[in-house]
Amino acid sequence: MEEFTSLFNNRISCLQRLGSPVMGWSSVYTPEEIIYAAGIAPFSVTGEGEPEAVKARSILSSNLCPYVLSSLEEGLQGTYDFMDGVVVVNTCDARRRLYDAWRIFVKTPFIHLIDLPGTVTPESRSYFENQLRIFRRSIEDHFKRTISEQSLMDAISLWNETRRLLNELQQLRKHKNPPVSGTEFMTIMKAGMSGNRKEFLAGLRRFIEGIDKNRNVSSKRRLRVLITGSYLDQLSLVHLIEELGADVVCDDLSNGIKYFEGSVNIDKEPIEALAGYYLEKSGHSVMADSETRFANILKLIEEYDVGAVIYFSLKFCDNSLIDFPYQKYKLNQNGIPVLSLEGERALVNLHQIKTRVQAFIEMSEGI
Question: Which CATH code, of 3.60.40.10, 3.40.50.720, 3.40.50.11890, 1.10.10.10, is assigned to 18-150?
């Protein structure tokens, strides 16, 4: 696990030493394969280092998504001065504002906005496919590189292998006593988005091969929890839940299971296949209606024998906050207790959250 922690914690210095261009992204709807096929290393902009976002709040409204504000703050503070490009997907108004502010105030050499349709129809598929072709040409023109069909296929195969291995690891969490904790799984996910793809894959293979499937065997039945809601990569919250006696066995998060679900169809033309894959990611609040979201969550609950749901929303994340009442109502109808938590990017209210989580676990265990 130390290897994955190091991959994430040292990602900036590793990317600076990579010897190839690097490009940041801020949404799981970003077709990383196109970036990688150009010989450019894609990595996730996390906003983890600047939670207060003082400068960003002077440019954008304070009641905007804390992830967006913190990401912009990192850009303004020079954290990504080494970066050769950044791509933003227009998944919500906050991300659209991030693109505008970054383009004006950070001035990364290459910046691109991919427009994501809000529905999945034949027309929207065609539109999004064209968006990806424009993105491909923009990279080729700016970096003076050709993205061949073969390089795209190679990148797709590499990313599909990543998805396959992460899904293999995820399946182990279905066990009565999961050999991989939720904290460990989130650590691995963060490392997977650090930009060192081949190094990450080598480590992931070693981890899966060496995992002791019986290491957490216990006679005591622990509450099995699913986390859903908005962007969440705070190890402290997942660790807190598990420290208080529950197992986080699954998530329905953009930077969790949504990142590696399914695979890109290698039998189709590469851009067409990528457009279809990214446009049709299941159950995400920026694309799916509430009923579809619920059906997807309920499916995961049944698959992973989940006994309770924790719904986390970043402060001012409209998509998640609007969706919560319906999800809570439907889950309660199905006998699933739900706890709603709201927090800033850095979860400065963790001590207040602890009391609520502890009471929720105790209550849910008694149901």
Answer: 3.40.50.11890
Within 10 Å of residue 243's Cβ, how many Cβ atoms? 12
What is the residue-level pLDDT of the chain in tens, covering all 367 positions? Answer: 888 898 888 888 889 888 899 999 999 999 999 999 999 999 999 888 766 788 999 999 988 988 999 999 999 999 999 999 999 999 989 999 999 999 999 989 999 999 999 888 899 999 999 999 999 999 999 999 999 999 999 999 999 999 999 999 999 999 998 999 999 999 999 999 999 899 999 999 999 999 876 666 565 779 999 999 988 888 899 999 999 999 999 999 888 999 999 999 999 999 999 999 998 875 565 666 888 889 999 999 999 999 999 999 988 888 888 889 999 999 999 999 999 998 887 776 788 889 999 999 999 987 6
